[in-house]
Amino acid sequence: MTAQLQAGQLTFRPGQTLPTISSNRAALAGVLLRGKPAQAAPQQLPRLYALCGEAHRLTAQLAIDAACGLRTHATMQELSSLTAETAREHVRRIWIDWPRLIGRSDQNATIAALQSLRDCPLLGQGISENSPIASVAFRKWVETAVLGESVPEWLARWQTNPDECMRKWVTRSMTLPAKLLRDIEYDAIQIQTFETPLLPHADRDALCALAQNIAEFDDFDRAPTSEGKVCETGIWTRLAGMDGNRSSTSNAWLRLGARIAELALLSGEALDNLALGSLMLAPGEALAWSEMARGLLLHWVRLEQAAPLANIVDYRIVAPTEWNFHPSGVVAKALAAMPTAACALSQAQAVRHIGILAAAFDPCVSYKIEFAHA
After folding, report:
1. Sequential DSSP letters for 18-58
2. 3-class SS at 164?
């Protein structure tokens, strides 16, 4: 983390009864922003939450603008910026985190991976923040370094049958992502991951109910629920891609595959793949959301009055990590389903499975593991 204020850690307890996850993450947005001018939110939050700083900036700006009665819809430039950051985060997670979390120790492979990462246009000077993401250079890089084949052909197979697409792809492709996923196929398929998808941004009433809970309960972000249900959020719960067949990615291997699929999708020309919007709840109060790399990000704000120069009375953020790593949520249930690690070998297996879960659900903080006898 680049800011000390963002420090926090998750604790995982595999093979134990729920709750199998605890967190010492603090709600820092309100502490930082309370009493400050409204525009402090989009200016300061990207520094506090640096991993997805642009998503936080865009969501904060929409929340402030909606609270002031100015607008509730994102511009095309904002959608382009969110798309670029989301794709860039996918690339970083695959090339930097996946080898550490799910790969075998291989220094030569790590060096080769970082060398190929340098060629990605999104990480260099080839594409500026305001450029369309659908550049020839980026799509070519995705086809060469990620898929090893044509984006349209790969996506057509994924959309028809994700499981069959993945099995055949990892067998024939020699790209870094394919090799990593091929190595963990057996283990990752064993890890079932299925929970109610978080989709309040599909319905105004659901958004209003969720906003009311965020406003009323100071500790809501520590164990959030939607309509009384523990939910999950991620690449596989995007509004643009929901087709009613949620079981198509109901294990950790296919959840990892979903990141590959979205990276391929984001290399195209469309800017309607990710939702970014806001809702004015009352004069001076609003909820904004963005579908960013880890899932659905929510910002709630209350101002002294509905005016751009007003001060912030309260500001609250519910990040994807709080949903996916809920004490009784989708990852917690997967941890509870693991066998009790009673020996060094079983502990090593648990560590491997937890690494797979961490790669699939991508917490924005570090984690530690506590075994039952510790």
Report:
1. SP-EEE-----HHHHHTTSBTTHHHHHHHHHSGGGHHHHHH
2. helix
Contact indicator for 319, 8 with CB cutoff of 8 Å: no
User: Which phi and psi (to 5°) does residue 144 adopt?
Assistant: -85, -50
Distance CA 195, CA 94 (A): 24
Q: What is the DSSP string of 251-265?
A: BHHHHHHHHHHHHHH
Residue pair 369/12 in contact by the 8 Å Cβ criterion? yes
Neighbours of 370 (CB within 10 A): 13
CB contact burial 117-153 (16+ within 10 A = b; e otherwise): beebbbeeeebeeeeebbbeebbebbbebbbbeebee
Contact 288, 298 (CB under 8 A): yes
- 293 with 168: CB under 8 angstroms? no
Mean pLDDT by 10 residues, the chain (374 residues): 57 96 91 96 94 96 98 95 94 93 73 79 63 75 96 95 96 94 95 92 96 95 94 93 63 96 90 94 98 97 95 97 96 94 86 96 94 75
DSSP string, 282-319: ETTEEEEEEEETTEEEEEEEEESSSSTTPBEEEEEEE-
Place of tokens 């994924």: 158
Q: Rounded distance, CA 152 to CA 98, Å?
A: 25
- Stated as kind and residue range, the H or E segment containing 196 is strand 196-197
Angle at 235 between CA 286 and CA 175, to 5 degrees: 145
- Please state the domain extents for the chain: 16-369
Give yes or no for a cis peptide into 19 (omega within 30° of 0).
Answer: yes
Q: What is the CATH number of domain 16-369?
A: 1.10.645.10
